Hints:
This protein is mostly beta strands. The protein has a domain at 23-73: Elongation Factor Tu (Ef-tu), domain 3. The protein has strands at 3-15, 20-25, 29-30, 34-38, 45-48, 51-53, 59-60, 62-63, 67-72, 82-89. Strand 1 and strand 2 (20-25) form a beta hairpin. It starts with a strand and ends with a strand. The model has no long low-confidence stretch (mean pLDDT 91).
Amino acid sequence: MATETHRFIGKVLTAADDGDMLMEVRNKCQVGDPVEILSPGQAIQKTSIENMRDNEGNPIQIAQPNTRAYLNLGLATQPNDLIRKPVVVEP
C-alpha cells in the first residue's frame, strides 16, 4: 500500500492578489502539478500550478531546484508562504 507524503518545492518571495508570485524553487516542479499552500494561521489551500515564467518573463514548463520562477496558482499567497506537493512513495 502506498503512503502519501509531501515534498517542499519552494518559498514565496513576493506575491500579488491575483495568484502571481515569485518563488524560490527548492525541488523540481512543473505546470499542472498539484500543490498545497501553507500560510501561517490559515488552513492549507490546495490548487495546481497554472503557469510558470522565468526571470525574463518567458513561459516555462519545468522549474529546477536552486532557481527562481514566477508562478500562478490561482490563489492569493503571501511572502514566506511555503509550497509543497503531494508525493506517493511506494513501500
